[in-house]
Task: structure prediction
Amino acid sequence: MSVRVDYRASLSLVGTVLKYLSVPLLLPVVVALAYGETLAPFLPTIAVTFLVGTALERLTPEPDIRAREGFLMVATTWLAVALVGTIPYLIEAHGIPLLVEPIHPESTLGNPANALFESMSGFTTTGATVLGNINVVDHTRGVMIWRQLTQWLGGMGIVVLAVAILPELSVGGAQLMDAEAPGPGIEKLTPKIAETARVLWGAYFVITVVEILLLYGLALAGMAGPNMDAYNAVAHGLTTMPTGGFSPQARSIEAFSAAVQWVIIPFMVIAGTNFALVWQAVAGSPRELLRDTEFRGYLGAMAVLTAILTGLLFTGGFAAGVPQGATFDADYLQQYATTLAGSLEPSLRHALFQAVSIVTTTGYASMDFDTWSAPAQYALLFAMFVGGSAGSTGGSVKVIRWIVVAKVIRRELFTSAHPEAVRPVRLGGNSLDDRAIRGILSFTLFYVTIFFLASFVLFLDAARAGVDFTVLEVISGAASTLGNVGPAFYRLGPMGSYLRFPDSSKLFMVGLMWAGRLEILPLLVCLTPEYWRR
Result:
C-alpha cells in the first residue's frame, strides 16, 4: 500500500512549532528568578524542546502542506506540546538523577499519567486538574505560572500562533488554521492568512493585558481581597481569555472579592465571542455584534441560564445536606445558603458568573456549586453542551451549531406539513448549502455519540479499578473533558479534582480533551485507513 500523506512534511512543521515553543518557556524562567526559585524545571525543558524540534524540522527542509498534511500536523502538534509540557512537572517531582534533587517529591504530578493529564488539560484549555494541593507552597511559582501559560498558548491556538510568526508556515496556513480553528470555520480578517493570524493573536494579547492591569489595579486599590497581587493578576489574565480556568488558588475565583468576580465576567464573555466579531467591533463596527445571529443566541443562552440560576439561588436552591466525600462542610453550606437566599446581588453575581463560566467553558468558580440544588446542577450540566461562539477560544459544541440544528428541525417539521414547499436553512440572511448542514449535523451527532460512549467507558474502568463514582460524576466528567470545560460535579467539582480516576481513565480523558480541542473530526480523520491510502 502506498502512503498518500507526506508525514515527514507534517512532522517537520511540528518540529518548527516545538523549536519556537522554547521561547515562551522564558516566562516561567523570569518568574523563578524573580522569586529566587530553581530553574531546574525549565532549562532542561527549553533544551529538549529546541533540540527535538530542530531534529524534526530537518526531516523535510521545505515541506509542502496540503489538507491531509495539515490534519496530521495539527493533531500531532497538540500531542507533542502536551508531552513537552509534562517535563517541568516531572522534574519538579523527581529532579534529574545525579544532577538535580527533587523539589517537591510529594507532587501528584510525579505520576507520568497525571503530568500528561495536567499538561493536556492546560494546552487544550480544559482546566480539569489532578493536582493534590493547588498553591504556591507545594509547587514553585515558576511551575504554577507554566501551568497558567500552557492555557494561554493553547487558547487562540498553537498553530494559529505559528502561522502568525513563522514565514515558512504562511504557505498552507489556511489549511492549518481551518484544521485547528474552534468552530465550523475561521473568517479571514485580512487578505493574507498570516496577517489574519497576527490580528487574532494581537487582539488576544491586548485584551489579556487589559484584564491583568484591571485586576492588579483592584489589588492596589484594596478592592480585590488579600490574595490578589501582581502574580495572581498575571496568572488569571493568562487563563481567562483562553477560557482555561486554571488558577494557582485552590478556591479558584472564590479566593477574591466580589469586585474581581464582576471584572472577570465580561472578559469571559469576550473570550467566548467570535474574535472576528470582536475585531470588527473594535475596528469601528460594534453593530456587527448585535446583527450576528450566533452572538445573539450566545447572549440569550447565558441570559436564560442566569435567570434560572438566580431564581433558584434567591429562593434557597441549595443541597439539603453534606454528602459523604463532599468538597464542602456544613458550615460552608450554611454560610452561602444564608447569604444568598433572599439577597439579589450575590445570587445574581454567582448565577451570572457560573452561567458564563460554564457556557464559555472557562471553568472558573466563584463558589463551590456542588452546594447547589439538583435542578441548579443539572442546569449547569446542560450548559456544558452549549459552548461559546465559533472562532472563539471556547470549547464544546458551539452556539452556531445548535442554531443550525434547531433551524433544520424547524424546516423538517414545516416540510412535513407542506411537502411541496422548498425552505432553505438561512443564517445571517444567507442560505446554507447542504454540505455545510451535513457537516454540522455530523459533528453534533459525533459529539453526542462520543459523550455517551466515553461515559460508558469511564463507568466500566472505574468499576474495574474498584473506584466508586456517582452517575452524575462520570457523565459530567465525560462532558467536561470532551467539551474542554474543566470542573464537573461532586468530587470532580470546582474545588475537587480528577485524581481519584485510575491512570487508564486519565489517559482516556487525555484523548477526550485532545479530540475535543480539535473538534473531533480532524483527529478521527487521521485514524481512518482511507486517510493514509492513495
About this structure: Residues 1-180 form one domain. The first strand starts at residue 426 and ends at 427. The chain has a mean pLDDT of 89.
